[in-house]
Amino acid sequence: MGTLNPCVKRGYITVASLIAIVSGLLLAITLFSHGYFHEDEEIEKVLPGIQVMYATSIITILLVTTGLYGVCKRKKWMLICYIVGMTLSCLLLSVLNIQGVAVRPQIAEEMKEQYLGLMPLTNASKTVINGVNEIQTELQCCGLDQGYQDWGYNISESCLCVEDAVNPCVAAPRNSSFFENTKTEDPIMIYKEPCVTYLAAHAIFAVDVLLAVLLCMLLLWMSSVVLCVILLCQMNRKDDTPAVVYSPEAKAGNYSVLSDDAELT
User: Global pTM?
Assistant: First the structure.
C-alpha cells in the first residue's frame, strides 16, 4: 500500500471536517424548523422539505465519518463508499441549483399574485389589514399595488413616513382621512412605493442567498471528493523498493583482511 501525501491528507481532513460542521448546522436548523412548524396547520406543505433536509444532513454526517475513519485506518472500501455517496450528493446539489435558477422569476410572480389576491384593502378583513400594516411599517411602503390609492379615503397610519425613512415619500392627498380633523396647511408625508415591489425583491434576495449557499456547499463537496480520489490512488500505488542482490563479498565482508593484518603484526 502506497504512502499518503501529508498535505493532501490534512487537506481532506480539513474539508471533511468543514462538511461535518455544515451538516450538523443543517440538522440543527431542520430540528428547529420542525419544532416551529409542528403545531402549524400548514405543516403538511413544508413536511416533505423537512424530511429531505433530515435525510441529507444525516447521510452526509455518516459519509463524512466513514471517509475520515477510512483515511485514518487506510480502509479503501470506506473511501470508495465516501466517493460514491458524495458524488451522488453533488449531483443532487447541482439539480437543486439548476431548479432554483429556473424557478427564481416564478417565485416573485407567485408572491405578487398571492398578495394582490388580498385586494381591495378597503374591504379586507381585520386580520389582513393588521398583516398589511406590519409589512408597511417594516418595509416602509404603502398599499400593495397602486400605493396609497389602495386604501381609498382611509389611508392607514402605518403609511406615514418616519423621520429617518429610507424609501421615498410623497405628500398625502388633501381629500384623505389624514386631513379630516385638521386645518393644517403643512403636507403630510406618506410612503410612495407599494409593498409588493419590496416583497418581491426580498423574495428574490432570499432565493439568491440560498443558491449561493448551495453553490458553496457544492464546491466544498466536490473538493472533498477530489481529495479522496487522490488519497485512494496513493493507497493503490506500490512504493518502489530497491532489489536485494546476493553478493559473496558482502557476506564475507572485509573481516578477512583485518584478520590477515592482525596475524602479520
Answer: 0.70
